[in-house]
């Protein structure tokens, strides 16, 4: 509507000008080359307008002829670039689909069509990796590191290769270079931290955690907990090197960062007990027992309380259990001391309270000791030992990532190298029914924690025949 209105206005203006020219005829005379032309002003204006239009049209033709070669070249280049990007896209799809041959073919095609190596080097590297040619992939990645635009992608590819071949030194160096290039990258920060912890660079890992917290890659509680884990690991290293002062400093730092960190609490309690600071150690154990009881606290508490006789240990255990009454570990602490003091009734009472309807392997073994010590009933003792083989295994430090079980806590799992993956809990214990031959047979997996010499010694030939499904593990190696 607006466009039509504009056209009508222009036509009206032109008509008004034409009418004005008619009303103002005037006269014009032109002498040139012996000729004289006499005409009106209106005719002259129309002639000048016509000449202007013709000149403009000729100028446009001249520009078209002049620009035609360049336009043809641009069109050819655009078509070539479009085909190159199409090949690049098809190559990426082939990489995602795992088609190494198609990926390499499209990479070569894109490289030939596009005069921009940074766009095609990544595809070429990925195609080489897909076909198993790691050396060619490395050449492409290294070439990418020489270009500012693709340096980070090249470093990432080289880093992944170094990690795949377990070259820790090269991987750490590449991660540090990538970190200098993009310190705000969460992937770089996490990769550098994992590599540092796997290679035992605890102090460097601590710096990386602090910088990750500043860049908001970690929340403040997560950052403090990681720093606590690293501090306690550094205290263990210092203790191994004989630096008691540094070990104490680091374990205190760990608890300052995370007061609920059980391994550090155990470490500080052991230090106080070993240094003769009985009051400090006792108060600390009592406080921690009320929050998170651990069986390792019990002998430490006996030591700091000066419980040298079995009856003294019973009294100390009863006092300690008062800080967390009703807890299974409290009952087990008293039962353990009562067994040593030959207080059979008290031991039985606390064992039954701790075990309930489903006693663990540890409680079953203690019940076996009780039956044999109190009544000399080897049959009942053996029954408890068989029951122990089927019960849940003893609590231990279990890796939450791979299930690896260890006796002593460490910052990283030796099996899967995961950081801060150990927690004190009951390892998984599987009991299932499997078909064997013509019928169903109960297969009982005896956990590693229950493969004691006492259990093996109590397995008689008669029971082997009556319980053919019990799988007996080999004797553990000495030491």
Classify the secondary structure makeup into a structural class: mainly alpha
Largest sheet: 3 strands, antiparallel
Strand order of the largest sheet: 4-3-5
Average predicted confidence as pLDDT: 80
Order of helices and strands: HEEHHHHHHHHHHHHHHHHHHEEEEEHH
Number of helices: 21
N-end to C-end Cα span: 98 Å
Overall helicity: 55-70%
Number of strands: 7
Low-confidence stretches: 430-479
Shape: elongated
Give Rg in angstroms: 43 Å
Instruction: Estimate what percentage of residues fall within beta strands.
Output: 5-15%
Task: Give structural notes.
The chain is mainly alpha-helical and about 475 residues long. The protein has helices at about 1-25, 40-95, 100-115, 115-130, 135-145, 150-165, 170-180, 185-200, 200-215, 220-240, 245-255, 260-275, 280-290, 295-305, 310-320, 330-340, 345-355, 360-375, 380-390, 455-460, 460-465; strands spanning about 30, 35-40, 395-400, 405, 420-425, 430-435, 440-445. The strands form three sheets. It has a three-stranded antiparallel beta sheet with strand order 4-3-5, with no helix packed on it. A hairpin with a 5-residue loop joins β3 and β4. The radius of gyration is 43 Å and the shape is elongated.
């Amino acid at each position: 509507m607006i466009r039509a209105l504009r056209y009508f206005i222009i036509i009206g203006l032109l008509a008004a000008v034409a009418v004005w020219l008619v009303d103002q005829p005037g006269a014009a005379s032109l002498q040139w080359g012996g000729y004289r032309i006499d005409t009106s002003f209106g005719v002259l204006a129309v002639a000048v307008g016509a000449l202007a239009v013709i000149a403009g049209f000729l100028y446009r033709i001249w520009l078209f002829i002049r620009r035609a070669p360049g336009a043809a070249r641009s069109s050819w280049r655009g078509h070539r670039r479009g085909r190159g990007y199409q090949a690049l896209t098809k190559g990426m799809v082939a990489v995602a689909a795992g088609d190494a041959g198609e990926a390499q073919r499209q990479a070569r095609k894109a490289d030939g069509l596009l005069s921009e190596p940074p766009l095609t080097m990544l595809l070429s590297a990925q195609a080489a990796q897909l076909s198993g040619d790691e050396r060619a992939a490395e050449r492409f990645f290294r070439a990418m590191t020489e270009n500012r635009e693709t340096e980070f992608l090249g470093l990432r590819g080289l880093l992944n290769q170094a990690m795949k071949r377990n070259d820790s030194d090269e991987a750490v160096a590449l991660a540090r270079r990538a970190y200098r290039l993009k310190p705000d990258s969460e992937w770089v920060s996490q990769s550098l931290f994992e590599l540092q912890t796997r290679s035992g660079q605890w102090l460097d890992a601590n710096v990386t955690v602090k910088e990750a917290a500043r860049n908001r890659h970690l929340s403040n509680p997560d950052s403090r907990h990681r720093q606590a884990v690293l501090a306690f690991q550094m205290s263990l290293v210092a203790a191994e090197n004989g630096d008691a002062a540094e070990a104490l400093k680091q374990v205190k730092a760990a608890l300052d960062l995370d007061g609920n960190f059980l391994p550090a609490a155990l470490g500080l309690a052991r230090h106080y007990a070993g240094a003769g600071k009985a009051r400090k150690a006792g108060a600390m154990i009592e406080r921690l027992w009320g929050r998170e009881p651990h069986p390792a606290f019990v002998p430490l508490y006996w030591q700091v309380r000066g419980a040298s006789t079995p009856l003294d240990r019973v009294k100390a255990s009863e006092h300690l259990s008062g800080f967390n009454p009703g807890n299974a570990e409290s009952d087990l602490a008293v039962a353990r001391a009562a067994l040593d003091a030959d207080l059979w009734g008290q031991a039985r009472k606390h064992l039954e309270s701790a075990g309930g309807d489903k006693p663990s392997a540890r409680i079953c073994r203690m019940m076996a000791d009780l039956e044999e010590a109190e009544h000399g009933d080897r049959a009942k003792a053996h029954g408890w030992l068989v029951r122990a083989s089927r019960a849940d295994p003893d609590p231990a430090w279990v890796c939450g990532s791979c299930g690896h079980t260890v006796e002593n806590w460490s910052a990283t799992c030796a099996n899967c190298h995961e950081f801060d993956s150990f927690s004190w809990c009951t390892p998984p214990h599987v009991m299932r029914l499997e078909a064997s031959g013509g019928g169903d047979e109960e297969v009982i997996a005896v956990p590693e924690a229950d493969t004691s010499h006492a259990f093996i010694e109590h397995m008689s030939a008669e029971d082997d025949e009556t319980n053919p499904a019990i799988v007996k593990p080999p004797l553990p190696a000495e030491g």
